[in-house]
Amino acid sequence: MAQQSLFRMALVEAFDRLAPVLQRHYDLAPGQEVVIEGPMRAWNRFAWARALAPFMPIPADQVPVYVRNRGLIDRGEVCYEWQREFRYPSGAVVSYTLTRPARDGLPARVLDTFNRPPNIGITLALEVSPDGQALRQTTAGPQFAIRGERYTALPGLFHIHSVAIERAVDERTIHTEVVISHPVFGRMFGYSGVLRVS
Predict the structure, then answer these.
(1) With contact defined as beta carbons under 8 Å apart, do 68 and 96 qualify?
(2) Spatial separation of the C-alpha atoms in residues 123 and 64, rounded to whole Å
(3) 132 lies in a domain?
(4) Is 1 contained in some domain?
(5) The pTM is what?
(6) Full residue range of the structural domain in which residue 18 is found
């Protein structure tokens, strides 16, 4: 029997309510992939922080963005891979995220692990809008510092707050908005735009 995709397993019957373009984006079983691309507006309140976290976007309008998503098996778990490229005239800013099953065992949750090898993990709650036109992913639950196989829970002061909303525009495009904030520093960086799902 074919292996289900991570987001279908996490959302269970709610996944079937998603608009077809969102299903095409997220229903990637191991071995399947999809490309998402288009122009986005990127902002970053703390340019100096890129020295610590170079994956943060450089502020600009109409940045060409290329995202390659794949379903895969990692360490025996069904995962969802994100490879993002913000293509500036000065060069590309690249980030890597691997979304895994959540470690708290609660329904409709996943764990985003960042970088290669992963060093940070944040738990996300998934919510499908009543009309199925949007998928909302927000931080909820434990966040971790990761070193190899070891996950160490981070205290609240080190937590970030992430809100990512993807909304169906039509049969081929989605509107994406991501905002990352911190309890002390407030809104830190984010990006938004209309992207084509191919």
Answers:
(1) no
(2) 28
(3) yes
(4) no
(5) 0.94
(6) 6-197
